[in-house]
Amino acid sequence: MSLPTTVQLNHTAVYATDRQLSAEFLAAILGLEVGAPFGPFVPVDLGNGVTLDYYEKRDEPVQPQHYAFLVPDEQFDTMIDRLEAVGVTYYADPYHKDPGRTNELFGGRGAYFEDPSGHNMEIMTTPYVRP
């Protein structure tokens, strides 16, 4: 059996207090669709072969995680407009200290916002430059 030459993320579970609400929220902001429930999961396909499988955590609190999404520059303003339309504050920084502003890191634009389960979501138009 030969192994693939590259490793790709296929899916990950995203814990949520309400799996449907969190999946619908992210899909609405990013302009995506929520898939049909699959076992205990509600999927959001990101379009690059990766699926976020929202899983409801009922017996303990959700530990907030960070999820960053590389988005087309021409859709960035629309996503910011969607956040504003639903009353979600966005920030220029990951610590949420600069509300209502975006950043211009690495020559692109970016913003952070919280999802219904407390995850720190990020949209950015240019990937980070790594050393």
From TrEMBL:
Domain VOC residues, every copy: 8-126
InterPro entries reported for this sequence: Glyas_Bleomycin-R_OHBP_Dase, Glyas_Fos-R_dOase_dom, VOC_core
PROSITE patterns in alphabetical order: VOC (PS51819)
Pfam families from the UniProt entry: Glyoxalase
Superkingdom of the organism of origin: Bacteria
Protein name: VOC family protein
